[in-house]
Amino acid sequence: MPRSRRPVGEPADPGSSSPWILMYHSVTVEEEDPYQLTVSPERFAEQIAWLHKRGRRGVSVRELMRARAHGRDDKLVGLTFDDGYADFARYAVPILQAYGFTATAYVVADLLGQDNGWDTEGPRKKLLTVEEVAELAVAGWEIGSHGLGHRALPGLAADVLAVQTRESRRLLEEVVGGPVTGFCYPYGAVDAPAALAVRDAGYDYACAIAHSPLTGRFALPRCYVGDRDGAWRLRAKKGRHRLRDAFTELRRRRGTRAERAVTERRS
């Protein structure tokens, strides 16, 4: 039985705006980075220090959504790490702990302990092992699902979507010994059937990347963070997030009014 039957386009509560969530992947030293997914530990430390100086506290998306439900998220920013790279535990966690921050690691359930074979042009990066994921969960870090094998969900048949979402959650709950309530779409790719599958699999929320007509609790937009992002670029990205959020909400309201007008004409 699904835990949630929320509409997939429901805005993140309370209100209509989306929370500010940063999207990281790998934190390490890398000579080759064709996909621009790697942030050096030094740059990452600078970015986290900047958030701290601005009075922000980085938290997992689970904690962010809970605080938001009670109107207590004003100074919080979600920190997410896609793919579940082993360097999250080695480099990112100690820096986050130094500031009292938390974060969410989205891991690929069928590939724990293997590598990022889906990145054909990039260097091979080790993924967190089953044991490491379990240890992180015990230590309080949120573990979310990134699907079974890092497969894009749009266009998949309904039964395949159900397996990707439900089975990945089941496997990870066995590893962490508790509920897994967050999902992150591989490649950030989401359409309506994928969002419905995630909702029906019992997740409480899901992270995408871009703002879209589906923006809401099951397609939360995020800001990409790379190694070039210093204080000025982070400020700019925060402002751009607000503008895109306002534009998305305006389009949503216009669409709702248009649908209401059509309904009234037909009645």
Task: Write a structural description.
About 2% of the residues have low confidence. This protein has a single domain, classed as TIM Barrel, CATH 3.20.20.370. Helix 4 links the parallel strand 6 and strand 7. 40% of the residues lie in helices and 13% in strands. Strands 1, 4, 5, 6, 7 and 10 form a 6-stranded parallel β-sheet that branches. Strands 2-3 form a two-stranded parallel ribbon. By secondary structure, the chain is an alpha/beta fold. It is built from 7 helices and 10 strands. The protein is globular, with a radius of gyration of 18 Å. Helix 1 packs parallel to helix 3 and helix 5 packs across helix 6.
Which labels suit this protein?
Polysacch_Deacetylase; 40% helix; 6-stranded parallel sheet; TIM Barrel; 267 residues; alpha/beta; two-stranded parallel ribbon
